[in-house]
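To fix ideas, we reproduce below one chain and its tokenised fold.
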Amino acid sequence: MARLADYFVLVGYDPGKRGSGDGQGQILQRFPEKDWEDNPFPQGIELFCQPSGWQLFTERNPPTFFVAVLTDINSERHYCACFTFWEAVESAQPQSHPRNGEGQEEEEEEEKEPSSPVQPAQLFAPKSLVLVSRLDHADVFRNSLGLIYTIYVDGLSVSLENVIGNLLTCTIPITGGAQRTISLGAGDRQVIQTPINDSLPVSSCSVALLFRQLGITNVLYLFCAALTEHKILFLSSSYQRLTDACRALLALMFPLKYSFTYVPILPAQLLEVLSTPTPFIIGVHSIFQSETQELLDVVIADLDGGTVNVPECVHISLLPEPLLQQTREALSMVLDPELEVADLAFPPSTISASSLKMQDKEIRAVFLRLFAQLLQGYRWCLHIIRIHPEPVIRFHKAAFLGQRGLTEDDFLTKVLEGMAFAGFVTERGAPYRSIDLFDELVAYEVKRMRAEEGNKQKILRHIKELAEKLYKNENPYPAVTMHKVQKPTEGCHLRLHQKPFPRLDEGTVQWIIDQATAKLQTAPPAVKAEKKCMVPSGPPIAAIMERNGNALANSARRLEVVRNCISYVFENKMLEAKKLFPAVLRAMKGRAARHCLTQELNLHVQQNRAVLDHQQFDFIIRMMNCCLQDCTAMDEHGIAAALLPLVTAFCRKLSPGITQFAYSCVQEHVVWTNIQFWEAMFYCDVQNHIRALYLDNNEENHADEESTEGPQEARSALEIASEQLRLWPTMSREKQQELIQKEESTVFSQAIHYANRMSYLLLPLDTSKNRLLRSSGLGDVESVSNSFVTNSIAGSVAESYDTESGFEDAESSDVANYVVRFINRFVDKVCTESGVTNEHLKGLHVMIPDIVQMHIETLDAVHRESKRLPPIQKPKLLRPNLLVGEECVMEGLRVYLMPDGREEAAGGNIGGPPLLPAEGAIFLTTYRIIFKGTPTDPLVGEQVVIRSFPIASLTKEKKINIQAQVDQFIQEGLQLRSCTFQLLKIAFDEEVASDSAEVFRKHLHKLRYPQHVRGTFAFTVGQSPKQAMQPKAKEKNPSLRTLSKNLVKNAKKTIGRQYVTRKKYTPPTWEQRSSQHFPEDNEDEISVSEEMDRSTLTPTTTIKPSDKMTINHLVERACCRDYQRLGLGTLSSSLTRSKNEPFRISTVNRMYAICRSYPGLLIVPQSIQDNTIQRISRCYRQNRFPVVCWRNSRTKAVLLRSGGLHGKGVVGLFKSQNAPTAGPSQTDSTSLEQEKYLQAVINSMPHYTDASGRNTLSGFTSAHMSSSGKWGSIRASGRVSSYALNVEIGSRLAGKDLLGAQHNGTPSEPSFLRQHRASLYIIGDKSQLKGVKPDPLQHWEVVPIEVFDVRQVKASFKKLMKACVPGCPSTDPSVAYLRSLEESEWLSQIHKILQISVLVVELLDTGSSVLVSLEDGWDITTQVVSLVQLLSDPYYRTLEGFRLLVEKEWLSFGHRFSHRGAQTLAGQSSGFAPIFLQFLDCVHQIHLQFPMEFEFSQYYLKFLSYHYISNRFRTFLLDSDYERIELGLLYEEKGERKSQQVYKSIWDYIDRLNKKAPVFFNYMYAPEDGEVLRPYSNISNLKVWDYYTEETLSEGPSYDWELAQGQPEHVEEADRQDTGAPQTKRKIIWPCYDNRGRVEPDAISKLLEELHNLEMELGQVPERWKDTWDKVKASQRTEARPEGSRTPSSLLMSSGLSHHRRSLGVYLQESGVGSTLNLSLDSDTSSTSTPSSGKQGGRRSTSTLYSQFQMSESENRSYEGSLYKKGAFMKPWKPRWFVLDKTKHQLRYYDSRMDTECKGVIDLAEVESITPGTPTMGAPKTVDEKAFFDLKTTKRVYNFCAQDVQLAQQWIDRIQSCLSDA
């Protein structure tokens, strides 16, 4: 029983203390006057009666009532019910007390003025009746105080003293659901219902009201804020509402109790409490809202406005999903049931929310469910450490979070760490107590809640059930007897002459109280029997969590693997174990596998000990480390806990008497330094021992019973504890003492045990190193641990971490002290918590330093011995195959090849075995860097992985730190990037000393950048690599071949002769000459050489016989052969020239005197003298004056190349102010000579020599037009616009608008080409040609274009390499492959080059000459010029022609290969610029679009791309012919042909290879005569070259043919052996591993190979593959001609028949060797299976888009032939090639059989009839009349005529059958 009210207080306004601010209250009377012993009188009640301050008012307010809550020092809450009314102040002179409250003053004035004549203003002071109670019965208090007021105000004849006395002596039961009727002796009656269970809060309607005021989301925010210990402030203008809101919030938090500051109504004087640092829930009247503005970390809920304001700096963790969503939905079902049916067409009429009181309980039921779900299974994580004298219980937070899978969850983590939860554990942890609704819910209903998830009806039903229980708890008796309490009459507070509240007689009241207490003392104490019982634990978490699937993430298969591996280890089957090992390490990522490991290892421990041999020990340690590596410091899954006993069990003998335990090798983990982990472990062990303590006692007593009952389930510690607690009161005192003592010593012994354990795991093996353990602050990066700590390196592990990484307080770097401190801290904490006696605790503190010291001593011995262990066996290094003449510079260093950003090799997204990481060695040879090894994953361990690249192609080398294996340290490594698109990311094995890694880098650098080009592999091959490199010789290089000596001698003789004749000057000697690089370096030399040349090479001089030798050699150069082929001058004509040839071969540069970088023989216009050339050359950069390099055999237009102009733009061309020599005459002459030179070029073209000198294209006849190629089709498809107008190039191509209107205003006709076109276009750089006006008198026009410079190419190439071969996998999706490819802008550069080239091709094809004059004339100029020739001249698309093209344009014309490839030390700073690679990529793009036009395959292009930078051949070394001659390279091949073993020239190598095997040959080669190619250059048409992305890890790059050849034989032998066994013939081809071309060759290569093998078997000399192929092809042609039908066999070869050429559904896929071939014979499938068909022939078809994406029309030709067709009205008859297509059901016609552009289509669906026709005017004369027929369609009539009657009949039949088919 408890008193209903403890104190009754009367508080009034204190008139005396009105000085400073507001008035104050004073206690007028209080009863009882002396404090109760059990409950002292609370201080400061007067503040809470008027929370906004005591003030006087000018009018009477109605009485108010609210309940304030005060908390005393013992955190007991006191409820103060305040009933306030107003009384007139007895004031004689009211003015004498001016009040300072400003508001009141004004009020006062207002009141005074009107009423002052009547009477002085009346003021009213508040007075409060206060009840102080520990019970929260607000309604009863309201009624009781109201009754007292009524008695006073209505003057009832009842003694107030009596009523108050009765009120204070009334006692009621606290709980138990009793109903008590009380009367205060004023004829009143009240019924008090006590709640059934006082642990459940009473909320009446407050929770529902809170939700009404704030809404669901806001309240959830407040709820989470309160649980996660944020500060919460309620604002309202109603005190009652503030109290209700606070009460509601606490009710929602049940079963947790709020333990911080809780003040539902905070008085004004105490507002500074709000700035307290601790959390709180406080209510404040909203007039103080302004004062709350500056609170930065307080969540403010405004109840009146319905808002919750969360400041920016506060982050409230919300409930974890899906609970948050489920709670929201449940609340919305309760609060707003209409929402569910709002959209129904016929909503049920009955739905309505429950009554407010019921709704209140339903909301609480939702939150109760929420807590049951949040805390389900919490009892399984309780540790009971002591049972007697009272239970001590701890909660294992980490285990709970781990098992619930919520370790990452902010909210739950904070809740579990909070004070409220600590209280919850203390209160509810006890195993034996009375239980309430929550306990039942969490124990019995969790399964049900799981099952009902997502079913709204069931959830609602459950909520209603719970709500019923809660409601019943508050209102146990439904039929409540009527209250009968007198209320005052209406408006009584306004009565004017109300007497003040009387002073009560203390004596009377006190007497009543004393009597009642005396009566109570005599009454027997009412003992309420508490219903205590064992608290049910509910299902364990694992049982509940199964649905989350976390437990099942590891399939049984993986666990099987773990088990097998462990059993192999213990059975000593090490090879088997090794194979499974990586899989085990991978499986360890999953929790189940880690648990499985600990269980399995447990089985192998006998008597706490398991002695292993070294290898076993090694495996076990690696597994343990891997297992621990993913554990966080919390160890939420209990892995470290399970391993703790094992690390002290597994050991190995190092030497007699010295044993190394596993713990010395697994210390590198964060978890061991986390004190919470040790505490949880300690408590867990203590619990087990205490459980055992009581189990033993019981088992002795109950042994006989158990046998009858059968095996019981093991009882949990909590069950045992509850049993003990039940028995405790019945035990004797001694028994109790004995148990207490037993428990205490159990805890103490465990503490000693743990002090030992902790020293094991905290003291490092090598204690001398002072290495401290990392604090948990260091992230998991380093929690990786040492796999191989165990063997040779077990000692050195310790050295890897420096002392910095120790704990915060590790100032004294001494490990021992530090460990002692750590253990002491731990022992203090756990022992005080678990009640260990002080003596014991002191004893422990003495023991700990000794324990640590002893352990250090044993460790020293172990450390010493472990250093003597033999090193671990490593796989043996595989030697790489080397080329002839290639030698190793450095023996292999053991390394790991790590995966980079390319995913394929590492398993990646396509799956497949992880070939990387691989372990092996890196070798450095004179030619390559080679890695060779085997994958670390034993499942692919049989494969060999090779990755290599030529040293010369190394572009970047950087040091990296890298973790080579899952369970190893970070190691140093290198990342080597090569411009052959390869990346070696290697980590040095720990056995490789860092200085040998340095030596490797130095050697690499020396080989990459030799002093001189002679140091490159192409020169040193075959010499011993030790030889020192010779410095570049200043005097004549002794190694020059005799031949070049002759050349020099001859040159000297020649110069000498002239010297005799003219006696002008002494020529410089050759040696001096060779040391000066370019003639323009100094003025003198220029003038000298000019004179010399004038004298030597006057046109009349015939060449002296002594020069013959030189000339012969020059003539042998490639360019000469080509000039002869093009008819640009033959040798005979160069000696005895005929005047009619427009061009001649000039020998002006045979001594390389005019231009170092040009070839010795040049083509110049016939009319230009050699001495003029000398002068012209100076206007151009590097003296590269315009020379002819190709002539169009049809239009005779020529292509010229030169360097850009010197000086400011083309001023040099027109004004030429910058001629090097002074004097006006000279200036003019140079400028004129330049013009003359260009004019001579123009005059050489046949069409431009007409009289006027103006060259319009009117000279072209229409016939000429039609022969000039594909312009019609180009125009039709908007081709020209795409080339000439969309791009800057043609922004004004020759200043004319090509497709614009003509001058006479008529729109441009198809003959737009006949507009004026210049006869020579000069393509120059925009920046050089600024401000040049087109000059109408000139016959040339300048086309300024913007080109990228070499810098941009370099930058772009770097980005391209990073995109194709990324260094590491990109985590950021924005750095995806395609994006980085786009950002590299490589394809847009290729687009630009192709665009310019096609433009030039068009110009040349229409008869204008073009001079390409960009940059220095050796980069982009070379690219464009070569591409133009390749596109225009089919000869260059053959193997021989392409070689010639490269030799001529790239090698002879001085592309600076050495400089651009940074091949020597000098070029190192400039870096690698892949100009030639870019050209090859362009050729590759064209090849893709015209697969039948090239004799060579894609592999040929890749081969060149690889070897032009590999330095294996000398072909692409040095920068010009001049330099090659100087080194004696150019002509030495003749003499050296015999020594076949080393190929100095790549061309010889290719020739030899091509004779042997068809690798470079393109089987689809079927050229059309004289075809000019016009590829699409839009970026959408360009493809990324697979050369950039593919690799073969099985053999390294396949471009070193001898190396690649060595392997297939083994494969075949293996196959042969297998034939006996019935094994599958399936081959598995891995995309990045196998060389597809070799493993799965294409059909033709395969057949040729089989033929070869058969011939070998028959003993014949095998025929060359080329001869075989040619025969087959020839026979095919003859077969295919007679029959028009097509057999599958003839399909492939009949490419000779022109109209089949686009129709071949043949796609030869490129690969390293030869090609793969799909024959798609069915026309429908071919559209899909032919990747190239969309762009076949690269010509745009003018028909629909549909046909553009399908194959060319010609694919479906059912019947075809030639017919004459009558044109439209007034047009003549014309022969057309007709194609009848059944598939598309149409008749198409073309200009000719060769044409691919369809001229028109007749849809057969529109045909009405076919009738015999009659010849009309203009019809062919020779044809029989019956050969005419007409085709009538819905639109018009077509007239046709066949060659003869049979054909006509055939056509009619075919068309008829088509119509009937349809």
Remarks:
- The two ends are 104 Å apart (CA to CA).
